[in-house]
Amino acid sequence: MFEAAELGRKVAKAEFRRREAGLRLELLELQQALRGADFPVLVLFGGVDGAGKGEIVNLLNAWMDPRWIVTEAFGEPSDEERERPPYWRYWRALAPRGRIGLYLSAWTSPPLLARAYGELDVAAYDEALERIAAFERTLAEDGALIVKFWLHLGREAQKRRFRRLEKDPLTRWRVTERDWRHWRMYDDFVAAAERLIRRTDAPDAPWHVVEGTDLRHAALTVGETLRDAMRRRLETPPTAPSPPPPAPDPGPTVLSRIDLGRRLDKARYRRELARWQGRLAELGREAAVAGVSTVVVFEGWDAAGKGGAIRRLTAALDARRYRVVPVAVPTDEERAHHYLWRFWRHLPRAGRMVIFDRSWYGRVLVERVEGLAPPEAWRRAYGEINDFEEQLVEHGTVLVKLWLHISDEEQLRRFRERAETPHKRWKLTDEDWRNRERRADYERAVHEMVQRTSTTAAPWTLVAAEDKRHARVEVLRTVCGALARRLEG
Amino acid sequence: MFEAAELGRKVAKAEFRRREAGLRLELLELQQALRGADFPVLVLFGGVDGAGKGEIVNLLNAWMDPRWIVTEAFGEPSDEERERPPYWRYWRALAPRGRIGLYLSAWTSPPLLARAYGELDVAAYDEALERIAAFERTLAEDGALIVKFWLHLGREAQKRRFRRLEKDPLTRWRVTERDWRHWRMYDDFVAAAERLIRRTDAPDAPWHVVEGTDLRHAALTVGETLRDAMRRRLETPPTAPSPPPPAPDPGPTVLSRIDLGRRLDKARYRRELARWQGRLAELGREAAVAGVSTVVVFEGWDAAGKGGAIRRLTAALDARRYRVVPVAVPTDEERAHHYLWRFWRHLPRAGRMVIFDRSWYGRVLVERVEGLAPPEAWRRAYGEINDFEEQLVEHGTVLVKLWLHISDEEQLRRFRERAETPHKRWKLTDEDWRNRERRADYERAVHEMVQRTSTTAAPWTLVAAEDKRHARVEVLRTVCGALARRLEG
User: Fold this and answer.
1) A356 has which bridge partners?
2) Which residue stretches belong to region Disordered (chains A, B) (predicted)?
3) What residues are paired with A323 via a beta bridge?
4) Phi and psi of B374, rounded to 5°?
């Protein structure tokens, strides 16, 4: 794979100056055009140590306007990063629409290193590579222009590069014992890199292997490739996606199987509430000590009692260790990113709980039904969500997903009650009434959501909420069960 | 001071239930009203260990809707927090407008502990208390409703509380060796607390000392005090501030003393540029190794050459270690906070540099001149800014503030050139032309800014930018000088 990048290509100084001058102007103009566009440009740098990745990133910053560039190099994770799933730091560093992000030693680095060191077997490595591909696919499908460069040096060329750096007192510090150790493992690195490139090369996230023997050649190649990719994208008129075929009527939905007749009388409710709140208080303390984080997702019909259920849950917890995140209209900063970005940013630290009052499932519920997201967007959201949740669970986070279900009639009754009770009136909006008219569409969306995202690792719990008392206890019981399985199982 | 909080006040269970029921409804309604208001409610809890601060915060979360409450308890700082000035974590946790923030072991805790342990002498303690007062004043003047509770227990009452907690197997873990050590230091804590309360009690950030012997009494007192404060504020019509007297004409401004005739010819420029960029590269590496952070502020006339000067600066730096933050319209998340919040959030980690292209000085420049901030807001900004910068410098951050100055005629020349050059046209907006008409007002604002915010710790450098080459070298030299003084001085 790398033979084509060991040809000793060189660019003379004069030619470099000439080509550089034109390229700079073109890049600057494209960067200005990008500022008005609705996608980010994400540029990933990988490659052999000493092949000039850092130098090229610096050059790109010098050629373009650094105000609209985000450059991130990932070293040892901070403790705040370590307490979240590994990709948290990459999500956190994503450039917003209209800007360019340059990434060094980013998401491809840890698996590559682990594979070269033999810490990952082939199967585990392939899984890590599939995660990379899924991450990039998610961003590309959201519109991100992704360009990936692999800076290559042959074994002997790398040795020469290190020797040269070591000779100069100004650059000697850059070559470490670790670099030489890696050089001795050259073949392991190359084998791991080949597999990485093969498995994560995609039409909308292509790798460009660049010969790094001559820095001038490498820099121009990177700059010109980036220029071409940006120009192509900025000049392509957005294609209207073909309308997807309508989904078949699912017939009876999963919701129809929920027994809405389940009730708790007051005395029983008091007993059960006290019992499960006591249990939750205990488990909450254990989770804090063990550093186990929890994410609870509340979805359900308007007026299904999410707020009341959340309060019964939090009443048993220490306010210093949970946070309730109400999900409403995204802020403009959030809108400038992939729709999952706003949820990634709220993930809890170790030992804490975050309760989402509505969540990322808005994409396949309200946004789908109201036509706020195009069909291809909410369709691919199922896979994106499964991948996101898998990362949470793999990290050891307890994930609980609750759908609070009530009948159409009960909802109407509660709406009317709200309209008549002064201190509850604020809860009821015109939009709530409008949503009621779309009940059938929403049922279908809920059905498909459960079908596609209730996985073994992250199952949905459908809660019969016709009776608030029953629902509240059921919610507590579910959260306790999930915590207990993680802490004691 | 605390005698009045050692009277053994108690509330019987039945009375508690009765008063609690009414209070809850009132708090919930006020919380709803607050959601539409344009200020946050910040509630600070201090007090003796074991006096029930945590329990009360939990109760407040149970009484109100936890979705609109931010609860933060500050423990050991994370490494990301340690790399910024101490108040970074508090700014980060501030509730946005319309919400309630509950804070435990927050900004009053570290100085109080340090004083009780004898690590701070009286003078240093007073300085720390002045910082607390300044922080709260800054937030209050921006509209925040601040309510502070001191939960008190007498020496014997605290001992009894610990004993009782220790007896119950369920709460035994809550009493630590540290609690008993602090109990033995009771008098030191009380002395430090008295001074804290006296020095940080202000009309718009008052302390309420609450007897903590009986939790029911304490919780109701806190809840009712908070209710009254919120109600008072929500019912008070905003008073129109009296127009401030116009500032006297400053006569010749500091800008008139800048020698705009300074120039560099091309050859000299090349040499000097190379020399100072080389020096900066070296200092940048040293700063990274030493973990020294740098903040560079660029202000100046439109077309004064900020962008070009920034690029000459960054060209000498490793892109992995700096970030350029262009300051434009605030995002809606930023607008929901104090205007300094958006700058606090961008402060660099250890060893990194952040370059602000325009900055917090917008408040006393464009916002003042264009009438975007009322006079009382931009007037108090001088003090707020000085305090902010003092914290940066105290933390060890290198702070460089640059004003790029050009004459009115040179600006006109550059505007015309921009208008005529296709690839520069995007830089020029109608607003730029409008701003030109206000030159005299801006000069006055710049003069006052320099007068009030050029401090020994954070001086302004006024750069003659009539000649771009001279300005660029001057900028590099200034940044190098500041870095060298910090690293080698």
Assistant:
1) A297, A325
2) 234-255
3) A354
4) -65, 155
Contact A31, A100 (CB under 8 A): yes
Distance, in Å, from the CA atom of B322 to the CA atom of B343, rounded to the nearest integer, reads 15
**What six digits make up the tokens of A479?**
């959260």
pLDDT tens by residue, A134-148: 999 999 999 999 999
Percent of chain A with pLDDT over 90: 84
Helix (H, G, I), strand (E, B) or coil at A122: helix
What mean pLDDT comes out for the span A248-264? 86
ipTM for the whole complex: 0.86
In a domain, B207, yes or no: yes
Judge whether B283 and A30 are in contact, CB under 8 Å. no
Contact status, residue B157 vs residue B6, Cβ threshold 8 Å: yes
- Candidates A298, A324, A334, partner chain B, best to mutate (most B CBs within 10 A): A324
CATH number, domain containing residue A213: 3.40.50.300
Q: What interhelical angle do B430-437 and B439-453 show, nearest 10?
A: 80
Spatial CA neighbour of A291 closest among A395, A410, A140: A395
Which residues of chain A does B311 touch, with a Cβ-Cβ cutoff of 8 Å? 62, 65-66
In the numeric block, the tokens 């991100």 are attached to A144
pLDDT band for position B248 (50/70/90)?
low
End-of-domain residue from the set B200, B235, B270: B235
Angle, vertex CA B251, rays to CA B247 and CA B256, nearest 5: 125
- Tokens at residue B49, please? 């260990």
A54, B318 contact by CB (below 8 A): yes
Residue of chain A whose Cα is closest to the Cα of B314: A62
Sign of CA dihedral A165, A170, A174, A176: positive
Query: Rounded to whole angstroms, how far apart are CA atoms A425 and B239?
Result: 30
Task: State the residue range of the domain holding B452.
Answer: 254-488
Q: Are residues B133 and B102 in the same domain?
A: yes
Which residues in chain A touch residue B315, judged by CB atoms under 8 angstroms apart? 58, 61-62
For residue B386, give both structure tokens.
């000085």
Rounded to the nearest angstrom, the minimum Cα separation between B66 and chain A is 6
